[in-house]
């Protein structure tokens, strides 16, 4: 029986890894190999695909879009962590609004495309940077994760600091911020991935050239040139690598945070 | 309420979520009574949109496809999650493999679909030069299989994590006692492990149903509803009517119906799986 388990794990692991391996391989395929159709025959290594990505203006080309997306999603992540951290602190200090966030957790964001669009039209921020930022500036999931972390901080510690005359600001920045570092990192990676992976929403609410995210850019390229694998794979790899690296750095924290969340 | 006015710190989150999550969620009811393209002046038409949906053959077709897709995806997803969690439990490679399985859910969706697309394209795809790849660009069935594989690929890490967390909560003494009493490994699994895993399985089935009823990003990226509308799941039908055809009022009414369907399914499943105990 045991070897059957090993076999299952090995098979699944290989299949799960296959698209990643292929992505890394295809990004460096020499363009000739793609056109001749002989993909595995002549092993070659070429950076030509990455050069193609740099064509056109910088800001509207791939690298500009990648930079824009990193800054945008990074900013949104910081906002989410800030609003979440403050809200978690309020709950920890006795404000009874945890149920409010738990109810919001059940609302499927993916289905709110139509009413959100209507709201953005009403607020006159459709097709502006705000449309990509404001709806994601707070997240009930992040509030919940950070509150779970704050619950483990002993009350006596905060009480002692308060007796020494510490105000909200000292408690938040000197005590809770360093203690919650692991949770903030895990929540940050998850928040980053969630915003980074929006596909349909940015396409609908912010379609203009200077607001295009890297996802939209890749999807557009795939639609225009579905056969042009080399540059497509290079773009896919370059857009995926930052996330993979962040994930591998903090993988232990992220998986553990998820497991803790499942126990609650 | 609270000490030292700490409740003020919740204000940014509460205000933002109230405006951009709770309000749209309730507002969708109002939009659903409109005849509205997003650009035009809205015209109030009462329940007309709902009446039209109930007579809309495309809606029923899309509902049928969604249900087929849901069953096709959920059963292998849950079974694979259980088998993998069991196979991984306590093995030296448990941590790295779990980390690998979790990765597809986080990486760039657009990039992942590019890899899948170039890998699995029939005729010209990378795999097609090694082994025959079914024509999912012509056969709705194989297109659904492709979306199913992609969906499982993205979420299997989470599924394994859910089962595995539950598995670790089962006291080892229970299984040892069973072994002492002469139970075989398969008996112990059938009568001890499996019943104790039930909450995790219920959770996966309910979450999985919600995701399959509402998810459509993979469809958008891989098949765009084709071939011949064969992968047009409800979520994608909603997106298409709202933002490609430009009938936002109709799409709002569809949103309400999908929400109600999700709620009904989730409640029914939760009850069914609990009663079987």
From TrEMBL, chain A:
It comes from the Bacteria. Gene3D superfamilies: MetI-like (1.10.3720.10). The chain crosses the membrane at residues 66-90, 97-117, 129-147, 184-204, 229-250. InterPro entries: MetI-like (IPR000515), MetI-like_sf (IPR035906). It is a multi-pass membrane protein. It is found in: Cell membrane. It holds the Pfam family BPD_transp_1. One of its GO terms (cellular component) is plasma membrane. Residues 66-250 form the ABC transmembrane type-1 domain. Keywords: Cell membrane, Membrane, Transmembrane, Transmembrane helix, Transport. One of its GO terms (biological process) is transmembrane transport. Belongs to the binding-protein-dependent transport system permease family. This is ABC transporter permease. It comes from Meiothermus hypogaeus NBRC 106114.
Automatic annotation (TrEMBL), chain B:
The keyword Transport applies. PROSITE patterns: ABC_TM1. It holds the Pfam family BPD_transp_1. It is found in: Cell membrane. The chain crosses the membrane at residues 7-26, 65-88, 100-120, 140-163, 200-222, 248-268. SUPFAM superfamilies: MetI-like. This is Sugar ABC transporter permease. Keywords: Cell membrane, Membrane, Transmembrane, Transmembrane helix, Transport. It is a multi-pass membrane protein. One of its GO terms (cellular component) is plasma membrane. Residues 63-269 form the ABC transmembrane type-1 domain. GO terms for biological process: transmembrane transport. InterPro entries: ABC_transporter_permease, MetI-like, MetI-like_sf. Belongs to the binding-protein-dependent transport system permease family.
